[in-house]
Structures are given as C-alpha cells and as structure tokens.
Amino acid sequence: MKPVAIFRHARSEGPAYFATYLERRAIPWKLFPLDEGRTVPKDVRKFSGLAFMGGPMSVNDELPWIKPMLELVREAVRKDVPALGHCLGGQLMSKALGGEVGRARVKEIGWGEVQVSDNGVAREWFGALAAFESFHWHGETFSVPPGGTRVLGNTHCANQAFALGRHLGMQCHVEMTEELIRSWCKGGAEEIEAALDSPGVQPPAKIEKNIGERVAALHKVADRIYDRWTESLAKS
Q1: What is the three-class DSSP state of 109?
Q2: Could you report the per-residue pLDDT of 147-162, keeping only the tens digit for each?
Q3: Predicted confidence (pLDDT) per residue in 19-28, tens digit
Q4: Which of 164, 128, 116 is nearest to 143 (CA)?
Q5: How far apart are CA 196 and CA 105, in angstroms?
C-alpha cells in the first residue's frame, strides 16, 4: 500500500492522534515537514491519500509553499486521491477548490460543541451522531467551496467541515492529544490572554479541565471520521 502523505506546516502542529490511528491500522505514512523547508511533491499518485495539518499562518500569506500546496490539493481532487484537512489544512483545501478564507467572526480557542449538518453527505461521514465536543484554535475560517457540502457547523463558526466526495476539510481539530493540548496552552498563553474577551476563547484552566475524558471522547469521533476517510485509500 502506498503511504499517506502528511504535511506539517509548523513543528508544534504535527499529526498527533492521526498518526496513532494510522499506525494502529498498519497504514503506512510519510511526513513532509514543510516548516523545515521540505519540497512539496508534485505526483499525488505516489500516495494513497494526502493529509494536511494545522499551523499559525494564513493560507493568504505569501509563503513559498502555499501555491504548490494549493495545486497539490487540486491535483488530488482531479486524480481522486483522498484529501483530509485539519484547521489550516481545511482552509488550504477550501481555497484550492474555489472557496474563500478570511477572518472569523469569533475567534475560537478551547473546547466547543459542533453540530452535524442535517443532510445525506453528513450522515455518510457521521452516521446518527448529532453533535460532539471538538477542540478549536483558529482566528480565520473558510467558505464551503463549489461542489462541497457543509457537514459540520457551530454557533461561532458556520463552516466547521465540508465534504466533497471522498475529500474532507475540517476547521476544528479532531487530532488532538492531551500532550498537544497542554503544549499549545503553554506556548499560546499570551494569545489566549489577549483574546479572552472573545466568547469562543477559554482560559487554560478551563481547557485542561477533565482533559483525559474529553480527549478520549474526541478520539472516538476522530476514529469514525478517519475510518470513513481511509475506506477510500488506494490499497495498492
């Protein structure tokens, strides 16, 4: 089986639970640390799927890897190679496919419920699940690109995820682990403090409350999402 290509845009935002999920199911993967200057590959057919992680930058920034990544997403859709985006990754997918990315109405940092949309596409991905608590850390958001379907949303961010065939772009973070959350809270303490007036931002103490139970519940949802996505991976 060809590996899943995982693209890391910042050292602090690696694949986390997504990598654990793949390893438990003996699905090979290869990391492309763009934050270390790794070149963006051009041939999507070398991979069974593409996964894009998060990052503190904007997809509208003039960074050398942005345009190649946007073209990579478009090529994945053209060649029907499953693409999966987490936060910044979801924004990359939206922009590549004709959507827009801009400042969110409400900044979100911490835990918050997201609702599963009432449509057939959402049911294909989430079954009977109506809502779940996810993790958030974003100040920008994306529109649903042409041909896509909104499958998740919440009070502060209408577009928490969209699906387009076998491709899924998410604004929320389902890949989190306890270690990663604590690391982000420590490294992002000043950002949190400066944004506490936002109704979508929580202080570290609230974010880390009952963290074990919350992460375990999130992983169950992540398993369902990843199960649905990996069904489409090329097996040879």
Answers
A1: strand
A2: 999 999 999 999 999 9
A3: 999 999 999 9
A4: 164
A5: 15
